[in-house]
Fold this sequence. Notes:
Blueprint: E1 4-5, E2 19-23, H1 33-40, H2 44-55, H3 61-70, H4 79-84, H5 93-102, E3 106-114, H6 115-125, E4 129-138, E5 141-147, H7 153-166, E6 174-178, H8 184-189, E7 192-196, H9 200-205, E8 208-210, H10 218-224
Parallel strand pairs: 2-3, 2-6, 3-4, 6-7, 7-8
Antiparallel strand pairs: 1-4, 4-5
Helix pairs in contact: 1-2, 2-3
Amino acid sequence: MPSLTMPKLVTGESSITRLIVMDVDSTLIDEEVIDMLGEAAGIGEQVSEITEQAMRGELDFHEALTKRVSLLAGMDASVLNDIYHQTHFTKGALELVRVAHERGWKVGVVSGGFHEIADLLVRDAGIDYCLANSLEIRDGKLTGRLSGDIVTKESKLEALRSWADAIGIPMALTVAIGDGANDIPMIQAAGIGIAFCAKPMTQKAAPYVLNERDLMKAFDIIDATH
Length: 226
């Protein structure tokens, strides 16, 4: 399984009642990082088309990611920091994390993107858990390969289950939010599954749909199910 960041529990966390797990690209943030890397490499259109095929469920995500990352071979790794500074948290994202924490909940992110970006976003937002891919870097350059296992729809679901188990809550008290085809299993398995400004396939599969690009609106759905 890909790298899974899990902090130790501390005394007093028995009051936690829910876990919110979100996708990163086009959910936690407005952008698709792999597409931004493609633009930086001068192959944006080619990478974006593969991304769209994967998000629509027309292309296996594992194959799509491998193809896109291979196109980045030779890129200077310093571009990752530049890309990070070009990302924007989705409206309501930081507020969602803050309010969740005020309620004593935990928040995690699962991403088919990269730890090199996701870890910085997690730090800035104060998010508790993170699952993402890691880019292989040698001599300051991207090799065009990933380091470790690839995050899949199955590993996203497993992260949701693992984190819920770690904080001692049933799946019924979990919330999953995402926009792509590889988010469908966790969305369907969560107590509350929300398709957020999602692709048609994901919207059709999800119990709840939110098409207003404001993550705080997720609380309208969450609170209505109490």
